Amino acid sequence: MAESFDTDKELNRFRGLEINGAGAEEINELQRATFDKLIERTGTWLKAGHDVPSIIFATCNPTHNWVKELFYDRFMDGTLPESWAYIQAKITDNPFLPDKYIEGLKRNLPPLQYQRFVEGDWEVIEVGNRFANDWDDETHIKSCWHKKEYPLYISMDFNIDPFGFIFYQVYQDSEGWHLWVFDEATIKAGTIGKAVGEIKRKFTPADMWRCVITGDYNGNKREMSQADHASNFEQIRRELQIKPKQIQTSGNPRHVNSRNDLNYVLYHSGEGKDKIDFRIDPRCENLIRDMRFVEANGEGGIVKSNRKDVHQHADHLDCLRYAINHKDCMKWIRWRQKAFV
To answer: What is the pLDDT of residues 84-138, one digit of tens each?
Structure first.
């Protein structure tokens, strides 16, 4: 049976299924929720007898999504659950394949695809036209933290599922300009209540009194579900008990312009008066993944039509785009462009 996640997000077709075993082909192309559903249903066919073991088989190719985190990474660091097994099988393990076939793959496949599909390399990064094309792990992934002496900024992206938030600070001191993304949040089945609860869990009322909230301009749309049609941003403002002026949004930037501004920051990040100290803390795994993998299309827009592909979510990248589009970050960009023409 097929997953059909686009038309059956609640996985209702699995409801009432009684099985003692399951096989998932190319599990890297499925949602994590589908795998969890297989675990839930396996072992429910009691007529098989109490001595019949329940088992789930799955095949996959190396990929940089939940499958890598759940299976491969835990296998490599020795934390795979005791009842689970990871068995690596490469195409070269098949003794019946002629050598000429393998030689043809090596000769004709792009090198990264050969590493991934033939050599079974899980670490290879295969990205075509990366949106953040000036991104560099070594340069931009650095520890940073919430400095209480400077205002807190929160950039929000409202999706049906999930809500994506980043928490950052942009400020100027004697060493120059700084843009630090020190934390993030991913709110599954996002609601305003969950969003406010997450913010309150992370920060104190003292942090909130001069915070700035920005993000997706569509969050200003009037919500028909509210008695007074209050927007998402207005509902959050009320719940956090902050002032209207602390909600600071502007029209969402066009992707091509936003990409230019993002890469301008990436290219000119570093130490020095003409640079900006831009860094993302290692804990921001979703944002870092977006920076590494999200691709641009031929018009400079973001490739994110397939929600099954975690590399096309771009929720946290959107949050960063809105953060850079905010006037306090654009102030540095405009200053540098004028000073170093």
So the answer is: 999 988 888 998 989 899 888 888 877 777 888 888 888 776 666 889 989 998 9
Cα dihedral sign for 35, 39, 44, 46? positive
Beta-carbon contacts of 257 under 8 Å, excluding residues fewer than 6 positions away, are: none
Q: What is the tens place of the pLDDT at every residue in 157-188?
A: 987 678 899 999 999 999 999 999 999 999 88
Residue found under tokens 């630090």: 180
| Mean pLDDT, residues 141-155 | 96
CATH number for the domain harbouring residue 193: 3.30.420.280
Residues 325, 178, single domain; the answer is yes
**Looking at the structure, do residues 237 and 305 belong to the same domain, yes or no?**
yes
Nearest to 154 by CA among 213, 199, 238, 234: 213
The predicted model scores a pTM of 0.70
Question: Which stretches within the chain are classed as H helix?
Answer: 32-41, 66-67, 73-76, 99-108, 111-113, 137-140, 192-202, 205-208, 232-240, 255-267, 285-293, 315-325, 327-339
Residue 144 lies in a domain: yes
pLDDT category at 224 given cuts 50, 70, 90 is: very low
Residue 12 tokens read as 């209702």
Distances in whole angstroms, Cα of residue 267 to Cα of each of 144, 171, 244, 314, 318:
19, 19, 34, 20, 19
Sequence-separated (6 or more) residues with CB below 8 Å from residue 216: 156, 157, 158, 249, 252, 318, 322
| Cα 59 versus chain centre, distance | 24
Q: How far apart are CA 218 and CA 222, in angstroms?
A: 9
Q: What does the alpha-carbon distance between residue 105 and residue 103 come to, in Å, rounded to a whole number?
A: 5
Question: Given this model, what pLDDT does residue 19 score?
Answer: 86
